[in-house]
Amino acid sequence: MQPSNVYTPLLAPIRRIEHETPDTTTYFLEAGQIPWRASYKPGQFVEVSVFGYGEAPFCLCQSPTRAQTIEVTIRRTGKVTDQLATFQVGDVLGLRGPFGNWFPFDRARGRDLVFVGGGIGLPPLRSFINYALDHRSDYGRIHVLYGARSPSDRVYKDELAAWSRSDQLTLLETVDRADDTWKGPVGVVTNLVKELQLDTSRTMAFTCGPPIMLKFVVAELRTLGLADKDLVTTLERYMKCGIGKCGHCCVGQSYVCVDGPVYSFEQISHLPEVA
Amino acid sequence: MERRTLSKHCLPAFLEALGERRRVVAPRRLPTGDIVFAEYAGGGDVPLDYVNSLLPPKDLFFPRREVLFTIEGSRRPVLSAPPTEKPLAVFGIRSCDVTGLTFLRKFFGERGFVDDSVIRRIDDALILSLACTTPGPDCFCVCCEGGPFLTSGFDLQMVDIGDDALLVEVGSARGQALVDEHGALFRPVDEALVAAKRRAVEHVDATFERRSYIAAGIKRISLGRVPPETWERLAADCQGCGGCCHVCPTCSCFTVDDVPTGDQTWQRERTWDSCLYSGFTREASGHNPREPRAERVKRRFFHKMSFQYIERMGRHGCVGCGRCVTTCMGCLDISTLLERITQDAAE
Predict the structure, then answer these.
(1) What are the chain A neighbours of B280 within 8 Å (beta carbons)?
(2) Residues whose CB falls within 8 Å of the CB of residue A10, separated by 6 or more in sequence, listed in order
(3) What is the pLDDT at residue A2?
(4) Whose CA is closest to B155, among B312, B333, B344, B2?
(5) Which of A77, A247, B198, B309 is most buried, most CB within 10 Å of its CB?
(6) Which of B268, B280, B303 sits opposite A248 (nearest CB)?
(7) Nearest CB to B306 within list A3, A246, A253
């Protein structure tokens, strides 16, 4: 008998695999049987099953406006993702979701958008970046700032190239360590924030990356005059269920899987585990 | 409230009759003297003279190990549901544990996400509770609105106050149907028993110990008035064993793993977890946002007692069963911790 409880994933074959960096891969999953394939919101996440090895949460990294497939960008980090790295096109993954809240795309309407991503922090932002590009007239100027450890650690290289040529947004990039191929700036992404000419009264910023990057980026954006309610990030926590039951992801009274993962700094800056 | 009388010698016949359609679970006394909940085998005596079971019957509804589904093949998986379970009839649950079960029912069904298997087990179960007339040394339900008598949450509440008879109080339509169906066993209520219960309530009121620091301590935690140094000092006594969570009628944290059962077969299992384990929040990268022990201990009591959770759940997360008092080797059970916090504040 088919299991039918809230923990049963839908089955989704891998249709395409794109190697982004030496340790990071994007999986394009067959969406035909996924009822929510076009109705999820940018910023939400899914629980991905590698059957026999476990389940882990990953952001939906593509805008629902472009979801011919379900896209997840995953870095090899542990048991589940190590096994996933051996999977090929045609192999089947499990999906539960979509879970969590989403980027405040309604509240951001009419505002200038600044996205600041570090390393593997770009994928969650990308769901909203492409959503905003597909609703271009709803938003003001769009800036995307991206920092990676090295040129080979950049994800979505083709898309970054397309964004750099586009007149719909401005893309600024930097790397911590350059190589012979790199012609751009070298240094932390905070340096790029300093270059921005922002009308802070009409700007909202969305940032995702390692904690140390967040700390400096947020400090810089505050210096420029952005209010905490207009500074938005996504939290990541160990989690099992995705539906507010297993207890692992609690921060204060907030369940990151249900109340998050998207928070403004107004909501979280007082939390000791975040600051 | 509808009332009936049930002769104690009719209890086995009643439980056996329930067994036709249900998995009947009742208290059983181990050779050690401890009481556990076990499948009722029929025939024998059912103990009624116990303070409480060693462990709460939570395990029957939210099993410490539960198969969510089975998996055949990793890359081309076929998933199968675990076998369907017979609905439960649980006799002898003490009032505090029924209160805990009501708490779990709310938690596992709230916020738009229904945890099917737990909710189904609770909703389908007959709850035949046994009210308390004699407190145990670690009991403090009277300080936590956890007992010793219930007004809701049960189908039938039994009170052992007669020499030979139990007073039976009906708490639901299902309970009413039950006493009607088994009319030959459930006699009209004996008014002497009703009077005896009234006296028992008064007696209990006089004998169950009131611990003023329970409410005072909860208030301090709830309002975030416990200083970090106090948490540090208290947490030094925590062994991180998770025992308090595992014996608690309201603790609900769990983890999920794929466990191999053969060549290319697994079952996805849910098992109890504890927020006091250092690995509870450790991420795949190794980063752990709640590594320090004091933070973990604080987290447990914040979850149990903070006003945010009280607001969400309609009550705090302690029913006063006292099992953590028996279990904790570090004097960090709820009662002692609240006492220490209150003393600390007074100094």
Answers:
(1) 238, 247-248
(2) A33, A34, A94, A95, A96
(3) 66
(4) B2
(5) A247
(6) B280
(7) A253
- What's this model's pTM, rounded to 2 decimal places? 0.94
For chain A, the domains span: 10-99, 112-234
Q: What would the DSSP string read from start to end of B77-90?
A: -EEEPPPP-PPEEE
Query: What ipTM does the predicted assembly reach?
Result: 0.92
Q: Do A54 and B257 touch (CB under 8 A)?
A: yes
Inter-chain contact A273–B290, Cβ cutoff 8 Å? yes
Alpha helices in B125-225 (DSSP H): 173-181, 191-207, 212-222
pLDDT single digits (tens) B133-163 = 888 899 999 999 999 999 999 999 999 987 8
CATH number of A10-99: 2.40.30.10
Q: For residue A119, which of A192, A232, A208 has the smallest C-alpha distance?
A: A208
* Position A246 confidence tier, pLDDT thresholds 50, 70, 90: very high
CB atoms within 10 A of CB A161: 11
Q: What is the pLDDT of residues B27-81, one digit of tens each?
A: 999 999 999 999 998 877 899 999 999 999 999 999 999 999 999 999 999 999 9
Please tell us whether the domain made up of A112-234 is placed in CATH 3.40.50.80: yes
